[in-house]
């Protein structure tokens, strides 16, 4: 059964659930159907209709009440439990969805699930075996651009998700409305389609070894055009529509797109009502 899916990932508070809710609204408006699956055992409330909920299998509150785990270990335990019972997820998806359905997977914010643990990768493998065409959508809060080392850390986490999941991948810089006038500046554009070597000049590292490491990483990012960001303001309908368009293309062509910076500029102008 052919299905389409967005794996919505990113650090805690990046805007994943808001993104899912707004995509649902957008699709309702244009008469397109899209479903959201909650894969976060710690989720507490939803602003979208939940088609399928991992908490029906396991939830973090029960695990913590068991006394063996705290919040972070408990979350990893829940996700490992999901993997051990992956046939449950497989059956639920097979029973609830039909050919060509489009599903958003709202994922937990614990970044280690995508970077050094292979839990999400194995879930993605399972989805692909079900003939699901997928795109990883990595959300990063635009507050990360306030500070260059912080932004660089965000870029590296985006890259490790991309490398770990090995599916078409789109990076989204969320909450650009919160940047106010700064989002209109040429300075902001440097972050969207950025030259890492250039930006590295703005970071101050006193340890020469680290400077060398940073430069080497920046060269790799630039040589392979590894990271671009699409700006998003979930409160702006056209911003949502354009991000959806980019992701749909990625899913359709099965690869990362090289997004035209002029397109991104238009996106920023429309998304930021300043
Ligand atoms: N101004 C503004 N706020 C946003 C935007 N997107 C999300 N937010 C706010 O950011 C906060 C966190 O958003 P969530 O959607 O809960 O983030 P999340 O990534 O799902 O969070 P976790 O599930 O805890 O990992 C909420 O208060 C949202 O209202 C945006 O585009 N603009």
TrEMBL record:
This protein's UniProt keywords: GTP-binding, Hydrolase, Nucleotide-binding
Protein name as catalogued: GPN-loop GTPase 3
Self-association and partners: Binds to RNA polymerase II (RNAPII).
InterPro entries in UniProt: Gpn, Gpn3, P-loop_NTPase
Record has Transmembrane helix as a keyword: no
Job of this protein: Small GTPase required for proper nuclear import of RNA polymerase II and III (RNAPII and RNAPIII). May act at an RNAP assembly step prior to nuclear import.
SUPFAM superfamilies, A to Z: P-loop containing nucleoside triphosphate hydrolases
Family affiliation: Belongs to the GPN-loop GTPase family.
Entries under CDD domains matching the protein: GPN3 (cd17872)
Keyword Repeat: no
GO molecular function, one term: GTP binding
